[in-house]
Amino acid sequence: MQNLRFVSLLALIVFSAACSSPSEPIEITAEELHASTDKLTDVMVHDIFSPPVASRVYAYPSIAAYEIMALHSDSYRSLQGQVSGLTAIPKPKTDSPMNYRLAALIAHMDMGRRLIFSEDKVTAFRDSLYSVWEKRNPREFETARTYGLEVAEFMAAWMKEDNYNQTRTMSKFTVDTDDPSRWQPTPPSYMEGIEPHWNKIRPFVIDSAAQFKPTPPPPFDMEQGSAFYEEVKEVYEISNEITEKGDESEEVAIAQFWDCNPYVSVTRGHLMFATKKISPGAHWMGITKIACRDTKSDFDKTTYAYAKTAIAMADAFISCWDEKYRSNLIRPETLINEYIDDSWKPVLQTPPFPEYTSGHSVVSGAASVALTDIFGPAFAFDDDTELKYGLPIRSFASFQAAADEAAISRMYGGIHYRKAVEVGVKQGRDLGKFVIDHLEMLEDSKEVATLSGTDNN
Q: Which of 135, 182, 280, 451 has the fewest Cβ atoms within 10 Å of its own Cβ atom?
């Protein structure tokens, strides 16, 4: 009997000790944010998101995480009043200590879940983390989760006012077959023009979709010797020159590295399927991750870098798509096949929207300006973003150099004329400069510009 009482008492002591022992703090580092962003990218590749829509998917989760981070930071400022329609996020309704980084990450995942089709994939990723955090410190986890989801709900309400839902019900793009200068669907799948109403999406920082309206392309004229004909001919001649080099062609390697076409149709006999790839925005979010890791940036600076880059790219797509469906210019492939060589094919598959200006050029220009503002003008890096898609690492001396290569890759790929590339990258850089000049995200720019810190809560 006494032995039984002793065993019972010992069990009670062990149980009491276990209950009273302090829980382990939940440490959130930049790597968790990288993983959450990578998960969004993987799901968007699976779901096949168009480049403009993908930029929106990156922007809202990044801003949600940034706003929670900035709320408790002495180094970063809120975007309220700086980004169109954004007001102050709610503050925590508890006196309990708040793990703001955990709340920011939870908000990031929840906003991402709302923006993609395969919610189950993000939910499974989230739940795998939830189970670890809940076991480690249930009270800290629940406090942060409640707040992170509250902010996500607030951000979702703001997001709903950006006209995206309205554009889903607008008319499809009508092809003008009577005007030879106007864009027409291209082989092999002859897809209709995507997102013709993207200029109606609410911008984040720029005043309007047309604020950075570029100079127009050369007047359409297929008479030999005209400025426009020479642009078409140049694409044809460059393509022939670089493909004759075979596997030794650096230009072809550059075109393939920056392809970033989310939906490449492949036809084999009666079978048609898609080779899925990342979008231009995904490539630059990958470069953002590389820069953050190379500088050992902590969670806060990483959140800042993702948000600033995502905002610049989202506005760049709005600006670019505004011009695409204004000028509505026909692609090289269509004209070369009709006027020069009916058997010619571009190195890259022509994407399904008008030619002018080059989307990758505009977005790369904007992203490179944002990243240069964060990490400096001479930031050399090795870009391994495309490794998982079977392409080798390419090295760059700066973000600007990477943007220049991304732009010219569109000519090498045979999908853009020279002016679309050169004017496009300028359009993006002008827009990017406007964004960084009008976003005051740092409390002390001199101090935070050199932040690379170590993660701690």
A: 135
